[in-house]
Amino acid sequence: MTDFKDRRGGDFSASPRRPRFTAVDACIFALLGLFLLWAAWRVGENLHYQWDWPALFGWLARRNADGWHPGPLAKGLGMTVRLSAWATILAAVAGILAGLARMSRLRPVRMLSRTYIEIFRNLPPLVIIFIGYYFISGQFFPSDAVSRAIGALPPVLRGACAFLVAPPGQFAAVASAVVTLALYEGAYVAEIVRGAILSIEREQWDAARSLGLSRRQVLIHVIIPQAFSRMIPPLAGQFVSTIKDSAIMSVISIPDLSFEAMQIMNATYKTFEVWLCVAALYLVLTLTASLGARRLENSLKRP
After folding, report:
1. Strand 67-70 with 61-64, pairing
2. Average pLDDT over residues 251-260
3. pLDDT higher than threshold 50 for residue 135
4. Other CB atoms within 10 Å distance of the CB of residue 259
């Protein structure tokens, strides 16, 4: 393998070094911090806004006579995590199936998959959510029937449903929201899967077919393992997008983080404190997901 070097002997083939934290970086961060302090002071002076940061603790956790309990924002954060996690799992399943169907030799299968992808990618998510919520919830998840069915379960299973998805009274609405969000995100996952498979060189297909493997065997044993590592970065971005898109579920009264924030804002008028806290919580979720995906990607690159 040829090593590429510059005139000073630098090796271009080596991995780039991570840039150091310099005095210029420190000045930039200091200026940014000063700007944020100035913005907060400006809001207080012009709007005569009385900041109430200690109220955040009561919104995140509360202490009663029987101990500590999660506050409304903590409960909403838990709902956002559950909603995003289940929607991501179902979106991955729907996206993989739709992506493979787009490459099927059967024309009806290809047309059905393409119709699903084009519809969900070209409609506003709010419209999809309203249609999906009222149709799916009314036809497949009737609230009364679902609540009775979950209420009839043993206490252990009933508690597991409440912990993993939602309490019996909210289960139908949350389930329909998960399905709707998963179908919307799955349309984008399908194109990611299809693009990753098509990015594999044609020689890989020809070499595998020359060994006598069928098309299904080539996909399962040769193409998909190579395409999987190429799917990780865009899939990570789609997972982060799912977390952010879950906020729109507040319009159908799903008690997620955004819904609880609006309830608190309407009751206390602490607009800035509420939404700055919510922004920080969403940022923690998305950065954690991005960091986990990056580590997974790096682990797959190791021999």
Report:
1. antiparallel
2. 89
3. yes
4. 20
CA distances 209 to 101, 105, 223, 295, Å, are 20, 17, 11, 34
Write 223-227 long-range contacts (CB < 8 A, 24+): 223/197, 224/197, 226/200, 227/193, 227/196, 227/197, 227/199, 227/200
Say what the pLDDT of residue 190 is.
94
Q: How confident is the model at residue 181 (pLDDT cuts 50, 70, 90)?
A: very high
Helix (H) or strand (E) holding 68: strand 67-70
- Lookup result for tokens 């047309």: 111
Question: What pLDDT does residue 160 have?
Answer: 86
The residue behind tokens 């009274």 is 169
Question: How much is the average pLDDT of 148-156?
Answer: 82
Fill in the amino acid letter for 46: N
Count of CB atoms within 10 A of residue 62's CB? 14
User: Could you give phi then psi for residue 51, rounded to 5 degrees?
Assistant: -70, 145
3-state secondary structure 127-168: HHHHHHHHHHHHHCCCHHHHHHHHHCCCHHHHHHHHHHCCCH
In whole angstroms, what is the distance from residue 233 CA to residue 300 CA? 12
Angle formed at CA 82 by CA 247 and CA 160, multiple of 5 degrees:
150
Task: Tell me the C-alpha distance between 205 and 216, whole Å.
Answer: 11
Side chain identity at 114, as an amino acid letter? R
Q: Is-contact 285 241, C-beta < 8 A?
A: no
CA dist., res. 188 & res. 191, Å (int): 5
DSSP track, 185-209 = HHHHHHHHHHHHHHTS-HHHHHHHH
Handedness of CA 37, 42, 43, 49 (dihedral sign): positive
CB crowding 91-120: b at 16 or more within 10 Å, else e = bbebbbbbbbbbeeeeeeeeeebeebbeeb
Over the stretch 115-131, which tens digit does the pLDDT of each residue have? 999 999 999 988 998 88
Residue 197 one-letter amino acid: I
